[in-house]
Amino acid sequence: MSNLADSSHPTRPAIAWIGLGIMGSPMSENLIKAGYDVTGFTLEQDKLDRLTAAGGTAAGSIAEAVRDADVVITMVPASPQVEAISYGPDGILENAKSGALLIDMSSITPQTSVDLAKAAKDKGIRVLDAPVSGGEAGAIEAVLSIMVGGEQADFDAAKPILEALGKTIVLCGPHGSGQTVKAANQLIVAVNIQACAEAVVFLEKSGVDLKAALDVLNGGLAGSTVLTRKKDNFLNRDFKPGFRIDLHHKDMGIVTDAARNVGAALPVGAVVAQLVASLRTQGDGGLDHSALLRAVERLSGAQV
After folding, report:
1. φ, ψ (nearest 5 deg) of residue 128
2. Residues 279 and 292 sit within 8 Å (Cβ to Cβ)
3. Helix 177-205 crosses helix 225-236 at what angle (to 10 degrees)?
4. How much is the pLDDT for 10?
C-alpha cells in the first residue's frame, strides 16, 4: 500500500502554533480548515479549548507543541514575548527539530527578527518574519496582507501555508524586512484613522448626516480600506477591539524608533504616535484603534 493510502495529507507539514489571541485563534483555525494538522500552545485554557473544538491539538508546553513540528508559527504581542517563547531551555529553538521552519507572524522590531534568525541558524532552524495586516476581520476571512522577510527558498516553502491565511503575500527582502514594511503599514493606518476621526468630529459638529457623508467620501479619493473597515465603528461608537490601542502604541514606538535609526523624518507620524499614547494614558488602551475618535472628541470639548 502506498503512503497516499496511509495518510490523508502525506505531504502536508505538521504545524505548531504558539499564541492563540485575537489573531492567532482564527488564523490557526483557517489552517485546520485547509487540512493541516495543528498543535497549539497558549497561556489561556479557554483558547486551547477553542483550538481543540476546531479540530486542533492542545499542547501542555511550548516544548511539547514544537517537538515534532515541521513548521512552527508564532503570533504573540511584541518583541519581549517573541524572545520569551523562542529562547531558553523551554523555548522554541531548544526544542524544535533541526531543519524546522519558524514563521514569526508577530509585529516586532526589525532587529529582534534579525537576531532571532541568526540565533536559529546556529540550531539548524530556518526563520521568516511574516507580520500581517488586516486585523481580526482579515484573520477570520483569511484575506490578510502578509509581509515577509527572509530567504527566497524558505518563503517558497512557506507559501502554501501563508496562502491559507492571507491574500497578498510578498517577500520584501532579507530578515527584518517584513517587520520594516509592517511598521510602515502601522504608520499609514494610524495617520489614516486619525484623519478619519477628525473628519467625523468636524462633520458631526457641522450637523451633516454622518452616514451619508462617510459613504460619499469613501467613494472618492478620500476612500480607503481603513474607512471601509472602521466606518461602522465611527458611526456606532463601537470600539470593541479588532486591534487594540495598546498594540498600536507599541507599533508606533517601533516605527518612530526605526525611522530615527535610518534617518527618516516622520513629522505627522510622530504627532499621531503621541495621540495614540495619550489615548492609552486616558484608559482607552484596551479599545480598538478606531477609538482615536474619542481623543479628537475630547480635544473638541466632548465629555467621553
Report:
1. -125, 135
2. yes
3. 50
4. 57
Residues 6+ apart with CB under 8 A from 61: 41, 90
Amino acid present at 87: Y
Give the number of residues written for the chain.
304
List strand residue ranges (DSSP E) for the chain, in order.
15-18, 38-41, 57-58, 71-74, 101-104, 126-129, 132-133, 144-149, 166-173
Residue of 232 and 7 predicted with greater confidence: 232
Torsion sign, CA atoms 132, 134, 136, 137 = negative
What domains can you pick out in the chain, each with its CATH number?
15-174 (3.40.50.720), 181-300 (1.10.1040.10)
Q: Cell 513548521, residue?
A: 71
Q: Residues 141, 135: contact at Cβ < 8 Å? A: no
- Give the pLDDT confidence score for residue 223 in this predicted structure: 98
Is 182 among the residues known to form the active site? Answer: yes
pTM here? Answer: 0.93
DSSP string, 234-272: HHHT----SSBHHHHHHHHHHHHHHHHHHT---HHHHHH
Q: Which residues contact 274 (CB under 8 A, 6 or more apart)?
A: none
> What H or E segment, with its residue span, contains residue 46?
helix 45-53
Question: In the block, which residue shows the cell 462617510?
Answer: 214
The pLDDT tens digits of the residues spanning 174-192 come to 999 999 999 999 999 999 9
Give the Cα separation of 127 and 276 in Å (integer). 32
Active-site entry in 97, 121, 123, 182: 182
